[in-house]
Design goal:
Mean pLDDT: 75
Number of strands: 25
Helix content: 40-55%
Radius of gyration: 36 Å
Strand content: 5-15%
Distance between the termini: 93 Å
Number of helices: 38
Structural class: alpha+beta
Strand order of the largest sheet: 10-23-22-21-11-18-20-19
Low-confidence stretches: 1-123, 327-333, 372-380, 954-960
Length: 960
Amino acid sequence: MAEETKKKTSTTKKTTKPKTSDSEAKVVKETKTVKKEKEVVEAGPKLTQEEILNIISDDEEDNESSKYIELIEVKSQNQSNVVAEVVDNETSSVLKELKKKTIANKDNGQTISSEELDKQQFVDSNELYKGVERFLDTDLTVGLTTEQVNQRISEGLTNKNDNDQGKSYLKIVLTNIFTFFNILYFIITVILIWVGEADQLIFLAVVIPNIVIGLVQEINSKRTVDKLKLMSAPVAIVIRNGEKLEIPVNDVVLDDIIMYTSGKQICADSIVLDGVMEVNEALLTGEADAINKTHGSTLMGGSFVSSGTCVARVDKVGKDCYISKMSNEAKKYNMPKSELLKTLNGVIRIISIILVPMGILYMVSRPDFNFVSGFNFESIKANILSLKSYISEIAYIILAMIPAGLYLLTSVALGVGVMRLARNKTLVQQLYCIEMLARVNVLCLDKTGTITDGTMRVCDCVEINNHTDYTIREIVGSMMYAFKETNMTSEALIRYFDKNNVLQAKEVIPFSSKRKFSAVTFENDGTFIIGAPDFVIKNNYDKIASKVTRFANQGCRVLVLGHIDGSIKNDELPKTVKPVSLIVIQDHIREDAIDTISFFKQNGVMVKVISGDNPETVSKIADRVGIENADRFINLNGLSDEEVKDAVFDYTIFGRVSPSQKKLIVQTLKENGKIVAMTGDGVNDIPALKEADCSIAMASGSEATRYVSHLVLMDSNFSSMPKVVNEGRRVINNIQKASSLYLSKNLFAFLIAIMYIIVGFISKDKLDAIWAFNNGFPFKPRNLFLIETIILGVGTFCLSIQPNRDIVKGKFIKNVVREILPGALTILLFQLILFFTQMIRFKGDYSFLALAYSPDQIVFSTISAIITTVIMLYVFYKACKPFNWYRKIVFSIVFVIIILMFTIPNLRSLILLDFTYFSITEWLLMIILLFAISPVVRLVRMLLVYLRLIPDNDDIIKIK
């Protein structure tokens, strides 16, 4: 009968095709090839929505779904000889028979059809979709037709969720243009035009390119990420027009017939129509225990399949799913706790709060301020002129305090990092996770798929006591034939033992990481179990322990084939399982694993291996790739949570670990101040991945694992990890250096504004006294042009894209404050020196007359601008250390440009530097102050260290 069925299937494959239009047939044909997949990726955003919607796959290598249909075929061979005529190469007649099944109603003992049960289950969704035609009587072997799918699309009943798409291009444009600081720039621009100082709008030469660069960078990043997302996007296997199609989950429609296999994430609320599987709903409910789902059970979108396979009907789609109503974040990755983002937002928030009060205080503090008290009809003109003067000075202060370039620089640096990682086949699902990866000091690995490449081979089979009438090959081959799905282990067993149907399967228990075994109950032959020896064999384990240990010491995985006479109840193995044979499996270690582990060792990253395998086996493999303290291993089977926590820092290798214990290990590390990265590829890794500071998934792993991770290694290559870590370090270290420059400018502007507010209040009633000199904010926007464009613009941008593999140390804000305080306080100190110098008298005359009384304070502002620019250049010089050829070139270019701007008259006039009124005393003063900059900065730094306001460093040691 089986041969006859296979023959008919084979004939069907060659002769039968569904009736489709020419365009549909073309799409189906194209999506069968890898070439089409590459074309889709390259096309990216050029694809229309309709083209993307019709990207489907009938790949003959879809083993999991094909094996499931093959299994259903076996189940129904005794019921029907008819083979469904569908394109599926492994199509069976059972999908037709599903509708004819009956089940027992546990409530009243009556028997009802599955169709009637389906209608009962759809009561809630019918209420939700009132007036919508439902397709509840769809033949499961045919599924929805093209007309029905098009009807659903026209009704908007697809599974598309806009929250999954990231920023749209319109949103990118709007968020880059309408920022708080850009709106502030616009207001200041209007004000300066109103007060007649349009010549000060030179700052727009910085603002406009910043906006353009931000737009271009974010759009390019989106395009790059979208292309990678297209490659890694979750897909669903649906039955339509009698075909098994693989389509994007967004294209699933209401009432679609959908197939779920192990490792898949449930893409929409569904009702199980056939099959049995275990579903983990931890992402929704927080409960880690797998839940059995059988005919009639509800599947909630956002949960994932731990084991088993089923056919279901989509009950709710898109925003109507449980997951969408509860929280879209539950089915995504956790947002990384970015210190960088927190600091930047904090800085912007503080500056935003103090800008307006600062402006008001400055205006009120002016000695000649009388706008309110002196306002009357006759003096309107005078008051307006006075108001214009105050407002323009306030505008200058606000411009000096805005750190908008810092935010842009951070976005550009992170965006460049995303694109660089994309070129290295790494998908970044959240921008700021790059920072967390750079700070990682503990890396938790799962052995399979990371240290090993996931491929396995059976290298030995040792018979213990085969008391049955069948050979080991017949037993294992029949078990492999019975399983609906495969994994790396079962594929290795199939290659060694092959498949056969000598024994007729009655009940199947698929493998799960919690059980650590899989089992098949056969007609009249009891139950055979394959799994971890110490989990399967309990009473008789001592008989095989020495053999298991011997193979484990060779770095091999050991499985036991056990047998019991009856069946397994409630997934609990009896203690009387008899060992039949040991199956020895060898993992293939990645060729580059040694170099990758060596990188982490050299960079001070602690590596811990967390595996479900025998700890001795994992220990030997870890030792072969050079993991430190690989001989310190522990078996976590049966340990309490407290015992697991106590073992975290005492051991390097953890074996027989359950998914909840993996999560507990990560939690314990984090509670002790560690920054943890976790790699994984299976559904058993998901709880730990969700808990880790930075989660990394292999693209070859389960779909659900990719969905919850911050990073996805698209080539599933563990050797990509050093590149990813180095990129994170480059971004964070360079942003840290650049931030010290930006915030130095903001801080000195704030301090000088405070200084002149104090001066203004003191001199209010002393207009004829010593406070009547230059007592206002000394900088106009053009004075700070060199700092804004050359040092902060060109200089910091060049620093932000340079290679930097230094280990990230300390807190971001502390590191930045340590760098900005010396420079900012030095500028304030020199401003105080200039302020009091203008008052020095010698024999009754002012020694620095031009400094005190030049027109428009031109001498005072020129010296102030030059001194401040040179101090910022010195801060930039410190940020470039240690010098390499790249930083030498960058610093030299910045230095030369500044010198040219100082010395060439036409260029000098652009930044309002004028030496016309300088006398010999002003020249000598400026030269002395310039030579004093370096020692004063160092002295200020030393004083700050002495006061414990900043930590010690090499400069202080040298001075001491």
